[in-house]
């Protein structure tokens, strides 16, 4: 196996918004579950940015998610009985329907691995939940920093023992691919136009001439 | 999944000696393939020891294997046409017969991952070769150091997001378990009495009261 495809996960492989909102609806009373899910996810980039900028040492995303949950509960004036149980929803996100079949087919052509900001443990449990047949788990936890820092892509390629130009980064987010390309990787864009709900405005289209532009993971396999 | 089993690989999961000898027999003319395999493997600990002791920065095992191959070829006064191809034999080692079925059954009880001195890429390719259904790959490449340094076990447990006492290290080598126990992990011994051939003298028996002592991986599942 002299090539690999590595994947953004939240939004690209799994539908975090509907999955989180569904659990919030049962665990947090008196809030709009979609507004709560969006607010929780809204704390994601600022929490990582402090680490990327060097203002805080690396801590895994599981811990950031838990801290952010407490922040958002306070903002909504809401409570929940078991924060740690609710936080585990990030290990229980449903894949988009095309993902298990697409990954299973792609495995015949290449090594496949998540290159996510989620931890190894989070990714392993999410793979169990969604039947994602990864060969390995690379990404933030391996690099001890967060995407889109170039070190995350470079370290991921290095541990797979492949040159960057034999590795394709797959994402539904153009900024992830901008960084992957800067690190020397090949790039594949798969739009997820309802990641943020029906009125999504970002990442509806590729913003560059990515090496592959696919409509979903099954289409990605035919173009790989 | 609130527990994990992590595994030594060379010797514990896979029969490196017969697999390497078989490929040496076709790739290197005029040598005893078992003597050559033993000599190649004999360079393994000294090469890692220099890194463990701080005399050399971390380099992945793939590179050490390649350097050691050149050393051993010179010692035997032998040549081979393609060193890199021969070096890939470490990605093509056959599992012991009980390993695929044992791991597949154990997955119903726990997360499973190799905790080897092999790199992530080597472990991913070896898993493809032998149908080893790992949830993740931990070990040396994650810790940037080599077992039995305690940091390798501690870092492996950390990225799985589990406390050490929820993780069991499985090995056919007592010294691996001594270190794992010192790091706070649970321990399981599975003897591989022919790892080094019919006249093996080491690791025929457990030297301590390991938490589990099993005859093979299927027996391990019943005791897990």
Topology:
The structure is a homodimer of 224-residue chains.
Chain A: E1 4-7, H1 16-27, H2 33-42, H3 44-52, H4 61-76, H5 83-87, H6 99-106, E2 111-116, H7 120-130, E3 138-139, H8 140-143, H9 150-159, E4 167-171, H10 174-182, E5 186-190, E6 212-214, H11 217-223
Parallel strand pairs in A: 1-2, 1-4, 2-3, 4-5, 5-6
Helix pairs in contact in A: 1-2, 2-4, 6-11
Describe the structure.
Two copies of one chain form a homodimer. The first copy, chain A, is of the alpha/beta class and 224 residues long. Chain A has two domains: 4-15 and 93-223, Rossmann fold (3-Layer(aba) Sandwich); 16-91, DNA polymerase, domain 1, CATH 1.10.150. Chain A is built from eleven helices and six strands. Chain A has helices at residues 16-27, 33-42, 44-52, 61-76, 83-87, 99-106, 120-130, 140-143, 150-159, 174-182, 217-223; strands at residues 4-7, 111-116, 138-139, 167-171, 186-190, 212-214. In chain A, helix 7 links the parallel strand 2 and strand 3 (138-139). Chain A is globular, with a radius of gyration of 17 Å. In chain A, 49% of the residues are buried. The model of chain A has no long low-confidence stretch (mean pLDDT 97). The interface between A and B is medium-sized, with 24 and 24 residues.
């Amino acid at each position: 196996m002299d090539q690999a495809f590595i994947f953004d996960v939240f939004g690209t492989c799994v539908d975090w918004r509907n999955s989180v909102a569904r659990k919030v609806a049962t665990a947090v009373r008196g809030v709009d579950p979609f507004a709560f899910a969006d607010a929780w996810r809204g704390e994601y980039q600022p929490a990582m940015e402090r680490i990327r900028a060097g203002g805080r040492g690396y801590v895994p995303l599981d811990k950031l998610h838990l801290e952010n949950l407490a922040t958002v509960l306070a903002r909504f004036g809401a409570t929940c009985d078991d924060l740690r149980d609710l936080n585990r929803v990030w290990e229980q996100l449903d894949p988009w329907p095309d993902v298990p079949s697409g990954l299973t087919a792609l495995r015949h052509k290449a090594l496949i691995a998540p290159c996510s900001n989620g931890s190894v443990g989070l990714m392993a449990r999410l793979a169990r939940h969604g039947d994602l047949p990864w060969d390995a788990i690379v990404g933030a936890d391996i690099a001890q920093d967060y995407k889109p820092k170039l070190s995350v892509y470079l370290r991921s390629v290095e541990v797979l023992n492949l040159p960057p130009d034999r590795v394709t980064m797959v994402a539904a987010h153009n900024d992830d691919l901008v960084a992957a390309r800067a690190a020397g990787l090949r790039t594949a864009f798969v739009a997820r136009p309802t990641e943020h709900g029906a009125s999504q405005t970002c990442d509806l289209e590729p913003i560059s001439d990515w090496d592959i532009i696919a409509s979903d993971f099954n289409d990605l396999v035919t173009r790989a």
